[in-house]
Amino acid sequence: MTTEEILIPDIGSFDSVDVIEILINKGDEIKKEDPLITVESDKASMDIPTPHSGIIKEIKLKVGDKVKEGSLVALIEKTEVSIETPKKEPSVKKAIENIASKVALEPTSPVPEPPATILPLEKPLPISESILVASGKNSHASPSVRKFARNLGVNLNFVKGSGPKNRILIKDIEIYVKSELNKPRTDDMGTHFSPIAMPDIDFTSFGDIEEKSLSKIKKISGANLHRNWVTAPHVTQFDDADITDLEAFRKSMQKEAEKKGVKLTLLAFMMKACVNALKAYPIFNSSISPNGENLVMKNYYNIGFACDTPDGLVVPVVKDVLKKDVLEIAQDLGNLSKKARERKLKIDDMQGGCFTISSLGGIGGTKFTPIINCPEVAILGVSRSSIQPIYNKTIKEFEPRLVLPLSLSYDHRVVDGADGARFTTHLRAMLSDVRKLLL
Ligand code: CAO
Question: Regarding beta strands 35-40 and 3-7, do their DSSP bridges make them parallel or antiparallel, or are they unpaired?
Fold first, then answer.
């Protein structure tokens, strides 16, 4: 093995160019044509390739040095013995002159991408000999950097250069790629959350099993629920409302409602109370705009309700709740629930919601944490009412009262905790005083 000097080759009419990047380290094992350093004139930058394969024993230059043809770049211990034969390949000199003349014609042209292909050569040059020029005012990059970018499929026009004169360095591309990988992706349901794979368990090894396919509704709602759960930071605010008087009033109206063929349930009153609270706290009647920059504030009041059907969960929407009385709302609720259970809901029946109520009161339970129906920003969970001892300050005694548990989940990107508590406090006040609610 012999140690040889690597010298700057013929670089044409440029008699002094700056070393702007050292691409090798002492001890590196390199192959013939690998780039060693990048030099730059006022018109062009180029990589200087190694004429031999071998191990770098010493680097004789540093960034900022001025070099010309014949300057010593490094000492290399050759690992191959090559018989030097004169080559007919285009020289570095010819290529740099070719490009320099192009650059002179278009001094502020944008960075060509991918630039290696712009050379009008019959046979493409090896990459290290391709003179890749970026002399635009804004950015430029050396051939090795361009090759690195090309291998990763990176368009350099999007990369911010941190080198001298905004030159793009390898580390800039690495930073760019990292930031791109961390951006939310549309194909993972709008999040960059990648859970580990579910373990593949053979359940038959534990006992008898039966497989059933998920219903279409479950497949669709499952994907939506998952997206909403991982994209919206949920907070759930709990509260209790004293609905003793409201329930007495509802019962007193039930006969009249039945005559009109309407079942007047608590849910109709809940809708009225929620619209009242939405008017008092309009932030709850908003959505984050698709570009994530603004809040869309809605001046209409359509309330969705989670409806349990044999095929799964659907959310029909009662439109214009503000303009309707409780009987009209109850009528809509009845019609939409019937349509849902008979699988007759139309797309329009499930669109345009501003806020959702999920009532499990007819079934049971004390409290739960409902998942927001995004892009809405809040959902109210209603659990089963029960008689509770409530302290009456006026008479200084506990009284048996009918108490309704409320669970408000909200998107903390939009709604602050204080507003969450204000909203449930307002709801509680409305539900406790039927006169306020119906005014
Ligand atoms: N506390 C105590 N009783 C309640 C109640 C409450 N909060 N809410 C309803 N009830 C009673 C009703 O008064 C009714 O009693 P009667 O039959 O004696 O009159 C009974 O429970 C059944 O009510 P309902 O379910 O017919 O009517 P509703 O208006 O309360 O609810 C609907 C309608 C569509 C919301 C409901 O049928 C339903 O599907 N609930 C499930 C929603 C769901 O799955 N949510 C979870 C989604 S995951 O977030």
Answer: unpaired
C-alpha 30/C-alpha 5 separation (Å) is: 14
Amino acid in the structure at residue 359: S
| H-run or E-run covering 406 | strand 397-411
18 Cα to the center of ligand 1, angstroms: 79
Best residue among 332, 345, 359, 368 to mutate for probing ligand 1, ranked by most atoms within 8 Å of CB: 359
Q: Could you tell me the distance, in angstroms and rounded to a whole number, from the CA of residue 172 to the centre of ligand 1?
A: 58
Question: So what's the pLDDT on residue 193?
Answer: 62
Structure tokens that stand for 300 in this block: 């209409």
Q: pLDDT higher for 46 or 314?
A: 314
Yes or no: say if 413 and 438 are a contact pair by the CB < 8 Å rule.
no
With CA atoms as reference, report the closest residue to 120 among 141, 99, 134. Answer: 99
Residue 102 has pLDDT above 50, yes or no: no
52 is catalytic: no
Per-residue pLDDT of 360-404, as tens digits, reads 999 999 999 999 999 999 999 999 999 999 999 999 999 999 999
Q: What are phi and psi of 341, to 5 degrees?
A: -75, -25
CB-based contacts of 192: which residues, under 8 Å, 6+ apart? 182, 183, 184, 185
Which tokens in the block code for residue 418?
């204080």
DSSP calls for 191-258: ----PPPPP---GGGTS-----PPPHHHHHHHHHHHHHHHHS-EEEEEEEEE-HHHHHHHHHHHHHHH
Confirm or reject: Cβ of 359 under 6 Å from ligand 1: yes
